[in-house]
Specification:
heterodimer; A: Alpha-Beta Plaits; 4-stranded antiparallel β-sheet; two-stranded antiparallel sheet; 20% helix; B: alpha+beta; Beta Polymerase, domain 2; Hypothetical protein af1432; 4-stranded mixed β-sheet; 12% strand
């Protein structure tokens, strides 16, 4: 089992979710996160007062999948989240020791 | 006690309980269930005592306290018992506790117990407020009646000795503390129907206080004494009954003493009570509306009651004198007072004026005045709703509510529901999500308050808004479409039309109001879900909103709405996105030519004309085409481009020259890449073509469409130009198989007979601008013409890996003016100061060093 974490542009969330649904994945955790990177934050001068937002709003998607479909899932996320411009994000794949379902106590594959 | 017998007792006791559950299933509910439960418990306890002592014991009494004393024993309530004894019966105590308490504990019941003499009771109640309160409801279960009467007398006598006031003050303090503890937003979503504001505790607090102060401890007693009027009384009884029913079900659903309406219990109980999902509302929403209505009624009644009590035990109000504000409205002790019911019926606008003063001064209305208003509601004239005076006061109230009190009092008295009938269905309406912590009516009040509080931080924006009244009206009415099924924003827009008419708003005001309510989610939805780097999209948004005034109002409403929805809804994350949306849209709205309806019409006309030729089904293809591009060509030309586009591939270039007499117009199409323009310029220069004017467009799919008006540097006729060779050279250059630098150097050194020498031209100018557009950096170069110029400049940009998205090349007088819309290699604007300087210096150099 692997954990996939993807940082993507907020407006791409629906596309990514749809794409994942298409390959049978419906369960995931989504959070609003602040990104810092090469992409520049929004800066605006309005009536002399400067508004600087020093982070870029991003969405983080987390999901656990079995190892045999990792590549497929990663590629699906990558292709649906892609705009070709800077700030498209990154995907991380992490190893997972165990997954337990709270309601039933099931472990491992059965709990995904 | 032998084990077998103990077991028998246990079973005998449990079965009444199970019988109770069975009875409940069959429909015994509400107060009946409680009294029945109490009776069963009384019977058991009396039986136990009798078994143990044989006959009627003297000097020993078993007393029920608290809820049990009131005969309000809920299914899983604690059983509050007091074992009363005298000094000379202290040896019997152990026998009684064995007989009565242990079986109860063994049966798993929660038994609160005390074993005391009368003296001990009187001592302890001075130290323990809750014990003191529990004694208020003391009731003899079984045992020595005289002993109990002695306790009772002593207890009530203690009050005569002047501790009444202290007790009531304690009661009120505990009530406030309880409201604080059980009042945060999580309790709004999942109320504790005993301890939350408006819960059963508040009712009990009323009656305890009533007994101590007035000797009246029942609702009917209150009614008789004039502490409640008929309507308040019936509401209160109804709500009390309902809360009891709900609490019973909650205890059974939880299987334990739980008073918190957690979400899963909400759904379960809604089903039990046969409240099912419908188009308008979920079953659970119907249920929670009922719960919140009950809680509200009790809350309002107890608030009014305790304000009354406060006045009685705090003499300052009696000593103070009422000051007249205007005829009919007085100020008493920092509260606004309306006394004359008949006057209010004659001049009902005074009620609104009073609330307006209340909002402006931050002073609440006196509880008597609120009761008075409620009692007059049915007799108020309908024309109050269309009164211009009331409208004026109402807007004043909205614009001055920095504190929710005034608006909440208008809600609680029922005045708001009378004035705006559309508001009535929002009362106590709780939507089933974890997001909105308030019922809708309260959320709208909170939105107005938050909006007022934004005035400091957003002063600039507020000061430039044309009609603040409309802003605040929109904020107050934005969710008025909720609870009616369907999309609430759109519905709300329709409803406010009716309200606008009634309030005699102008047509313009009515339109603005309707727009704001219908679109109150526009900013937040699009900021978080759409690509804010897409200029075409932002332009679409700008055109939808149409004016910067509307944008500002929507912006403020968006923030206030978020703040009023719940804690942590308005996060920095959301703020960043909404701010970006706001600024980009505002910027476009300031460029009037973009919003000019003529321009919009022209673009639409063009799209339609093209669609007529290519087929309506293909029209969506045109959505992504830049408007500048669409407005620069005829429909036929655009159709031609679409056709040609199909032939394009990575290395292919389409070159279509046209003779226009004085100049030649070349249509060039290719796939975009960095350095493309510089290569085009270089090849043209190689072939003695000088670019007089050009328009460079890049379409969304990376197709480049360039129209270059060229002239020739040498005497050559159009038909003699080797266009095929030019096309070939261009292709080679794109494949990086042609070195333009050395070819050009070779060519031009040949002509002048000397190796090319650097010659300084009169001062060129380069401007790098990030203000005009939010989506591109605009680079403008001003210089004298030369065949090399454009090649030099574009080559320099290519060296920096700067991508030219759009360009206009032309001249102004004797100067060549080139405007480039660019982005860097990462697709961002050139904002790094150092980098920008480097680019500027390089461009200046390249503009200066040219060959004549």
């Amino acid at each position: 089992m692997k954990k996939i974490e993807a940082i993507i542009k907020p407006f791409k969330l629906d596309d990514v979710k749809e794409g994942l649904n298409e390959i049978g994945i419906t369960g995931m955790t989504i959070s609003e996160v602040k990104g810092h990177g090469r992409q520049k934050g929004h800066k605006e001068i309005y009536r002399g007062a400067e508004y600087v937002v020093d982070f870029i709003p991003k969405i983080k998607i987390e999901l656990i999948v079995s190892a045999d479909i990792v590549e497929q899932v990663v590629e699906k996320i990558r292709s649906t989240a892609n705009t070709g411009k800077i700030g498209d994000g990154k995907i991380f794949v992490l190893p997972v020791e165990d997954v337990i379902r709270v309601r039933t106590g099931e472990h491992g594959q059965d709990a995904i | 006690m032998e084990t077998a017998a103990a077991e028998k007792e246990l079973i005998k006791f449990l079965s009444p309980r199970q019988a109770l559950a069975a009875l409940w299933e069959q429909g015994l509910s509400g107060r009946e269930l409680l009294t029945h439960h109490s009776s069963l418990m009384d019977e058991f306890i009396s039986q136990r005592l009798f078994n143990s002592m044989g006959k009627k014991p003297s000097g020993i009494a078993l007393v029920a306290l608290g809820g049990y004393g009131r005969k309000e024993l809920f299914p899983f309530s604690d059983i509050d018992l007091l074992l009363l004894y005298e000094k000379n019966t202290s040896d019997l105590v152990e026998q009684v506790t064995d007989a009565v308490f242990y079986p109860l504990w063994d049966a798993g019941l929660e038994v609160g117990h005390g074993v005391r003499t009368i003296e001990a009771c009187l001592e302890d109640m001075k130290k323990d407020f809750f014990f003191h309160v529990a004694l208020l409801d003391a009731r003899l279960i079984c045992g020595d009646k005289r002993l109990f009467t002695d306790l009772s007398n002593a207890f009530w006598e203690s009050f005569d000795k002047g501790s009444r006031k202290g007790f009531v003050l304690d009661m009120m303090a505990h009530r406030l503390e309880r409201h604080r503890r059980f009042g945060d937003h999580t309790y709004l979503l999942e109320p504790n129907i005993k301890e939350s504001r408006g819960g059963l505790r508040d009712l009990q607090a009323m009656f305890w206080t009533g007994r101590v102060l007035f000797g009246i401890g029942t609702a009917s007693g209150f009614l008789e004494a004039g502490l409640l009027d008929k309507k308040e009384y019936s509401n209160l009884e109804e709500s009390k009954d309902d809360l009891i029913v709900i609490r019973n079900r909650l205890h059974y659903a939880s299987g334990r003493k739980n008073d918190r309406l957690f979400f899963e219990y909400q759904e379960e109980i809604a089903k039990n009570l046969r409240l099912y999902d419908s188009k308008q509302a979920l079953g659970v929403e119907k249920f929670m509306k009922r719960v919140h209505t009950d809680l509200q009624r009790v809350a309002v009644a107890s608030d009014l009651f305790f304000e009354h009590v406060d006045e009685i035990i705090n003499p300052r109000a009696v000593k103070g004198k009422a000051q007249k504000i205007v005829p009919g409205i007085e100020l008493l002790d920092d509260k606004i007072l309306l006394r004359d019911g008949e006057l209010l019926l004659q001049k009902p606008y005074l009620i609104f004026k009073a609330f307006s003063i209340s909002a402006k001064q931050g002073l609440p209305l006196h509880y008597r005045s609120r009761k008075l208003i409620s009692s007059l509601l049915e007799r108020l004239p309908e024309k109050l709703r269309t009164s211009k005076r009331c409208k004026k006061y109402f807007l004043e109230i909205l614009k001055n509510s920095h504190d929710p009190k005034t608006l909440l009092q208008m809600l609680d008295t029922g005045l708001m529901g009378f004035y705006l009938p559309e508001f009535q269905h929002l009362q106590a309406l709780a939507l089933h999500d974890v997001y909105h912590v308030n019922t809708v009516d309260r959320h709208l009040v909170e939105t107005v308050v938050q909006l007022n509080r934004l005035k400091g931080k957003y002063r600039d924006i507020f000061s430039s808004i044309k009609d603040e009244g409309i802003l605040f009206l929109a904020a107050f009415l934005h969710d008025i479409g909720k609870g009616l099924g369907g999309r609430h924003a759109k519905k709300g827009g329709e409803i406010v039309g009716t309200i606008a008419n009634r309030l005699s708003l102008t047509k313009e005001q009515s339109e603005e109001l309707g727009f704001l309510v219908t679109n109150h989610l526009f900013l937040i939805d699009n900021a978080t879900r759409r690509d804010l780097e897409d200029e075409t999209l932002i332009l679409k948004f700008a055109r939808h909103i149409k004016t910067i005034d509307r944008l500002k109002m929507l912006y403020l409403i968006t923030i206030a709405d978020s703040l009023a929805t719940g804690p942590d809804v308005w996060t920095e994350w959301k703020q960043a996105l909404v701010l970006e949306f706001y600024h980009k849209t505002a910027h476009l709205l300031e460029q009037h030519e973009l919003i000019d309806p003529n321009r919009i019409a022209a673009v639409e006309w063009m799209k339609e004309k093209v669609a007529e030729i290519i087929g309506q089904d293909k029209k969506p293809q045109l959505e992504n085409m830049p408007e500048d591009y669409l407005l620069s060509f005829t429909p036929d030309a655009i159709v031609q481009h679409l056709e040609l586009k199909k032939q394009l591939s990575k290395d292919k270039v389409i070159l279509l020259p046209e003779d226009r007499g004085n100049y030649w117009s070349i249509l060039l199409m290719s796939m975009d890449r960095t350095g493309l323009l510089s290569k085009i310029c270089g090849v043209f220069a190689l072939h003695n073509l000088s670019i007089l004017q050009a328009q460079i467009f890049t379409l969304k799919d990376r197709t480049v469409v360039d129209v270059l008006d060229v002239g020739t540097n040498i005497e050559k006729a159009f038909q003699d130009v080797d266009w095929a060779q030019i096309e070939t050279d261009l292709k080679k250059a794109l494949q990086n198989r042609l070195s333009l630098s050395h070819r050009l150097a070779a060519k031009f050194s040949g002509i002048s007979g000397q190796p090319h020498k650097v010659s300084i031209m009169p001062q060129p100018k380069v401007v790098i601008d990030n203000e005009q557009s939010d989506f591109y950096t605009i680079i403008e170069t001003y210089s004298q013409d030369s065949p090399w110029l454009l090649y030099n400049v574009t080559k320099t940009l290519a060296e920096f890996d700067i991508n030219i998205h759009k360009a206009k090349i032309g001249s102004s007088g004797d100067q060549v003016v080139d405007v480039f819309y660019v982005l860097d290699s990462l697709g961002e604007r050139l904002e790094d100061g150092e980098f920008t300087k480097e680019v500027k210096d390089a461009l200046l150099y390249s503009a200066r060093t040219c060959l004549i």
